[in-house]
Design brief:
Layout lengths: L1 E2 L2 E2 L1 E5 L8 H14 L12 H13 L4 E7 L8 E12 L5 E11 L3 E3 L2 H11 L2 E2 L1 H16 L3 E10 H4 L10 E8 H4 L1 H10 L5
Parallel strand pairs: 5-8
Antiparallel strand pairs: 1-2, 3-4, 4-7, 5-6, 6-9, 9-10
Helix pairs in contact: 1-2, 3-4
The structure holds guanosine-5'-triphosphate and zinc ion.
Pathway: Cofactor biosynthesis; 7,8-dihydroneopterin triphosphate biosynthesis; 7,8-dihydroneopterin triphosphate from GTP: step 1/1
Pfam family, one: GTP_cyclohydroI
EC number: 3.5.4.16
């Protein structure tokens, strides 16, 4: 397909996780709530097990999308950076959400990517049981493989509710992770620009 004279390419990406069994999740949620002493027989709580099951399905099911790319006809060689992409993920240790913002940047090679797709990739990889380190590296690896950019980098700042709502109880604590590849890793000037433009130097 041609868009403004450019040849567009689309590749469909579906969630890799198996389809959730919502009824089994509802039964398990009911058993968990009962075991915790929660009354699920009231008018208000009768549907809590199915609500809980659906809430987790939502947290763990990313939307499918088309990865649309275009030829880099303008020869854009500088950094393209998107800041503060919000995401919700699930900590694989406590099955509690961790939420934050990702900054994603890349140095285009032969193709440029549709802007919205960077946020869609973050969602695709966040909606599964995760640790922040793996999420950070997976976003970089995913983009590196599919865009063949000259460099790619990700910084994630997140708050883990397993640390803020329970346990050590440190609300406001932010965990910062980063992953860089290609020229963003190897070239000092480009790396500096990434952290300056991404506001990730503090
Ligand atoms: N490295 C890493 N650790 C994480 C992440 N999310 C949660 N954790 C940590 O995983 C660890 C699990 O440790 P455990 O000692 O088994 O769990 P716990 O007894 O509930 O620990 P506390 O949270 O300290 O009460 C905790 O220190 C969590 O803070 C993450 O994304 N990356
Ligand atoms: Zn946790």
């Amino acid at each position: 397909m041609s868009v403004n004279g450019m040849v567009e390419e689309r590749h469909r990406f579906m969630p890799e996780t198996p389809l959730p069994d919502v009824e089994a999740a509802e039964r398990a949620a009911a058993a968990l709530l009962r075991a915790l002493g929660v009354d699920i027989e009231t008018e208000s709580t009768a549907k809590t097990p199915i609500r809980m099951a659906k809430a987790y399905v939502e947290l763990l099911t990313p939307r499918s999308f088309d990865l649309t790319t275009f030829p880099n006809d303008e020869g854009y060689e500088e950094l393209l950076l998107q800041r503060d992409i919000p995401f919700i993920s699930v900590c694989e240790h406590h099955a509690l959400p961790f939420t934050g913002r990702a900054t994603v940047g890349y140095l285009p090679g032969e193709r440029i990517v549709g802007l919205s797709k960077l946020a869609r990739v973050v969602e695709l990889l966040a909606c599964r049981p995760q640790v922040q380190e793996r999420l950070t590296k997976q976003i970089v690896g995913w983009l590196d493989e599919r865009l063949a950019p000259r460099g790619v980098g990700v910084v994630i700042r997140a708050e883990h509710t397993c640390m803020t709502l329970r346990g050590v109880q440190t609300p406001g604590t932010t965990t910062v992770t980063s992953s860089l590849r290609g020229l963003l890793l190897e070239d000092d000037r480009t790396r500096g620009e990434f952290f300056t433009l991404g506001g990730a130097s503090q």
